[in-house]
Structures are given as C-alpha cells and as structure tokens.
Design goal:
This protein is mainly α and about 190 residues long. Helices cover about 70% and strands about 0% of the residues. It has one domain (about 5-185). It has helices spanning about 5-35, 50-55, 60-85, 100-110, 115-125, 135-140, 145-155, 160-185. The N and C termini lie far apart (about 45 Å).
C-alpha cells in the first residue's frame, strides 16, 4: 500500500480533475434554468410520470441538460488550453473527449439517475425538495453524481481511483452547487 502522502497526492489530483470535469455540468445547470423560461421548452414542461416520480421530474430536464452540457463541454474544450497550462499526472482533459458524445451522455445520465431516488421518495410519501432528513438530503445530492461516476467508469473507462475519489467529493460539490443555484434564484 502506498504511503499516506501518495494517497493524499492522488486524492488531491483526482479532486482537481473531477472539479475540472464537472465545470461544464455547473454551467449547463445554469444555462438550462434560463432555457426553461423560453417558449422553446414549454412543450416539454410536463412530468415524465407524476405517479411514479412526482410532478418535478419533467421531460424538459431530460432534454435540456444533455443539450446544455454538450455546449458547455465544447466551450470548456476551447478554454482548456488557456486555463489548464500544466495538467497534473494522469489528468483526463475535456479536449480528449468527443464533446457531443460526452456532453449528451453525461447530461442525460446525470438527470436520469435522479429518477430511482424520486421513485423511492414518492413511495415513502416524502415530498419533493424535502431537506428535513439528512439521509435524503445526502441521497438527493449523490444520485446524479453517482450515476455519472458509473458512466465515467464503465463507458468512458476513467480510472478506479478517480471514481473512488468521486464517491467522496462529488456529493459535497453538488451540495455546494445547489446552494449557489438557490442564492442566484435559479432553483
């Protein structure tokens, strides 16, 4: 087993890489909130299946996030050479990925991964957005990231140590993102 210093270094590098890889998701989440207010997405503003997932899981999210994420990935690929001058060892760059494939898949899986949690919460009678339970607050902020981590590992074949780091780091990042979206009035 590597010494603790090596483990900490890998954790830091993986956390930095994860932060970079999810930057497009943060931008996509902001962009989609603006898209939802347009007439273009109004026809998709209805529940996927209200009895199964509740009224808040709508078709517009399954369509808008993949699209805005693909655009965001393309934008970050353009910016990457100016922002990431010297990547850390074993760095996964956005420019090494097909922006359309990666953008659409991650955006779709990110939203699709919320549905099992919503299904369970509706069966338990827990209202949408209920933050009174620490367990469900954590699950609400880990379902989509964990779905994305599975996609990263099995489809994009990202390394296991990055995925293990993501199990710890991503829920914290998305809790922070939710807080920011609420402060900006976007959620």
């Amino acid at each position: 087993m590597p010494p603790i210093v090596d483990i900490c270094q890998i954790f830091f590098q993986d956390t930095s890489n994860i932060l970079w890889l999810i930057c497009p998701l943060f931008l996509a989440g902001i962009l989609e909130a603006f898209l939802w207010k347009t007439a273009l997405f109004e026809p998709l503003n209805f529940p996927i299946n209200e009895s199964l997932f509740g009224a808040n899981k709508k078709w517009r999210g399954l369509v808008s996030l993949p699209l805005t994420h693909a655009v965001s990935v393309g934008l970050f690929q353009i910016l990457e050479p100016w922002i990431i001058k010297e990547p850390l060892p074993n760095w996964i760059s956005l420019s090494s990925l097909n922006w359309l494939e990666y953008g659409l898949l991650v955006g779709f899986i990110f939203n699709l991964s919320e549905l099992p949690n919503s299904f369970i919460k509706r069966r338990l009678g827990i209202p949408p957005g209920d933050e009174s339970s620490l367990l469900f607050y954590f699950v609400d902020h880990s379902d989509s990231p964990y779905g994305t981590l599975l996609l990263w590992y099995f489809y994009f074949q990202f390394p296991g140590h990055l995925i293990l780091t993501g199990l710890v780091v991503t829920p914290l990042l998305f809790m922070t993102a939710t807080w920011i979206r609420k402060k900006l009035g976007l959620k």
